[in-house]
Amino acid sequence: MKMYQVDAFTQQLFKGNPAAVLVLDDWLDVSLMQSIALENNLAETAFVKRIDAENYQIRWFTPKVEVDFCGHATLASAFVLFKDYTQAKTIHFHVKDLGIFIINQAEDGKIQMDFPIRKPQKLEHYPELLNQAIDKPFKEVYVNAQAFILVCETEQDVVDATPNLTIIKKIAQEHQRSTTITAEVHDLDVTITAQSAQVSDQYDYVARYFAPHKGIDEDPVTGSMHTGLAPFWAEKLNKDQLIAYQASARGGLLFCEIQAQDRIVISGYAQLFMQAEIFI
Q: Could you give the CA distance from residue 160 to residue 196 in angstroms, rounded to a whole number?
């Protein structure tokens, strides 16, 4: 059985977020899909089931659990389909509980993904444990269907923050939410080093994402989370188009455009790292 490994939200190998992709004619047993994801030990392994050349079902597994939405593995899957499985430039992913994702490939290879917005709401009262989640100050707390969002004072605080993964895991177990941190990139005179990448004023905001309860201490790039972060910053900055940088060790770049009817297009590039044959 053929399997691909793709670095998503990057134009460079060994950056972005790696995802494994398997394209199937029929679903495998759930326990087998989970075992493959565990064996891969990547943030996500995506399984894509063909309907026809332009329509596919998709599911995502971390090493521990199946998840309801994953952006970077959707990007990786679309990259694989456009590369080897279809001549179409537009495909549709049929997703349980989330409807249809319309995916387009631009002439330069950028993949544009139409997602539902998951807008966050401000919390005046939030779990006390969040005060121990990172070692940097934050000024506001928001929440959406996926995560608590800690708005930090500066982009440098986001880059430098050390997460308390034990506390973040406890928060997730109690509240069924991951934790993300974010800040506006606002100082035009400063370029900061985000671990292995440069964060500068070409970006509108930076973020990091932690989900140790799902087997992902820090996710390199989290497309699904930006369906909440981008609308949040769009409103703050009065912009419909934003460029986001996820300041993990690998780093990743996301192009976000707010659409009508609570939709968002999140775009990015991908690079093929590996094609393999697995034996099951």
A: 12
Give the model confidence (pLDDT) of 203-229 as tens digits: 999 999 999 999 999 999 999 999 999
Catalytic site includes residue 235: no
Other CB atoms within 10 Å distance of the CB of residue 122: 12
Name residues whose C-beta falls within 8 Å of residue 179's C-beta, 6 or more positions apart in sequence. 130, 133, 147, 148, 150, 163, 168, 171, 172, 209, 210, 211
- The structure's pTM equals 0.93
Catalytic residue among 44, 155, 184, 218: 44
Q: How far is CA 191 from CA 155, 198, 202, 234, in A?
A: 10, 7, 10, 22
- C-alpha distances out from residue 140 to 121, 131, 208, 215, Å: 11, 11, 16, 27
